[in-house]
Protein 1
Amino acid sequence: MILIDNGHGAETPGKRSPDGRLLEWQWTRRVARRIVDGLKARGFDARLLVPEDSDVPLRERVARANAIEGDILLVSIHANAAGRGEWKQARGWSAFVARNASDASKRIASLLAKEAERRGMAVRRPAPGQDFWVQNLAICRDTRCPAVLTENLFMDNREDLKAMLSEEGIEAITETHINALSSYSSL
Ligand SMILES: [Zn+2]
């Protein structure tokens, strides 16, 4: 089963574009639903970790994932921000795994980054040739399954935001996940 986590809920304050046109919780729900639908259309058992709109605490999300029996993998969908409400220069797409990440998590992160690049997104790398970042992320660290977090462009960069609000941009982001996760799950 492929679990898609759509992160923050409606009560999360502050996580929005400087002009207020994009709210992270709303946007990630839209993207996550499209990824789940796309994976289902390809015959995969895909589900939303957080079907509700409200905030579900990280600990509860981890517990939900860990309660599922069998082979699962998890991707947590986010929108990046470099500042605190003002426009910034940083832009691009990036994948993260936890410090204790399994080889499977790293393989999935790599597939996602390569697919994002193929779809024309600027992939941010910690070093040349390295497809993902390593960070202390609870959703990846505390879940027992392979887990990756994706930061899908910067909502406080004007060009990235334009892409995030366009059908082409959303398509590139959703197809990145659908293709990479299908190819991993078909192995
Ligand atoms: Zn986030």
Note: DSSP finds six helices and six strands in the chain.
Protein 2
Amino acid sequence: MDWLLALVLVWGSLTTAADEHAQAAAAKAALIAQMEASMYGGANQAESIVNADWALMPESVYQGDVALVRSQTGGTVQWADIEYTLQPFGNGYYTFLPIPVDMKPGQYTIGSRQLTVLDQSFATQYLKVTKKQEQMRRNYDTIKKDQIKINKARSASAPTFLFKEVFVVPVEGKLTTPYGYTRFVNGVFSGSHRAIDLAAPTGTKVVAANDGKVVLADSLYLTGNTIYLDHGMNLFSQYAHLSEIWVKSGEQVKAGQTIGLVGSTGFSTGPHLHFTFFIGNIPVNPNVFFNTTPFRWQKQK
Ligand SMILES: [Zn+2]
């Protein structure tokens, strides 16, 4: 073979390989961008967010709510005495920020954006329980042991969003205690109720609020039969006082899948589901999740 022809052939195959490599990389980048964009409410919303240096979803929140932050670059966000690491997802970096119930209303700088915290006036609830139930709450050793188990379950979360679709209400029931109620039990202040209580007959099916992984399914002292699901990126949901648990720790669950039955186990005055979300160990308002996803928390309140 003529050496020049051979060289041309080799050169040709090299450039083809390089082109193919570039094409594969471009196709992969397009898929990653598409996967991230598909989480948003529409093409316009996705485009405006993924092109911004920082985005807050939403830009104004009430005390006790939660915001999702996106940044073009990785790093950490210092927020209410805790450091949150921005985790890579798609072409950006994300973290949830829980808003403490007692955070001072006002404007807070997150990257290049301003997060507005609005005042939420929480109501007060006076609860009467029997002496025996009141005694239950003083079993500090058992309560502490459970708390170690719970914190361990919430200490590791999948480094990606495990859900795609909207969050669903886990049980059809009557709202008996709204989120954030300041509670007095037998006249004594007992903190704020950072969950919702949905009353329903014992045995009513309780479903997973969204896709996720069971990180705890156990009988606990105060919250009775309890399930914690990890939805990824430090977001967990909690289902308490169940009469039955239908899942095991480590199991993957789908949105709407029955995971247990309503009950009145633990510190409870009647059959109901005590339900909430956590960012790490901080409870946040579950109502902001229902029928939407954090990626669509766009509307200004
Ligand atoms: Zn409750």
Note: The mean pLDDT is 92.
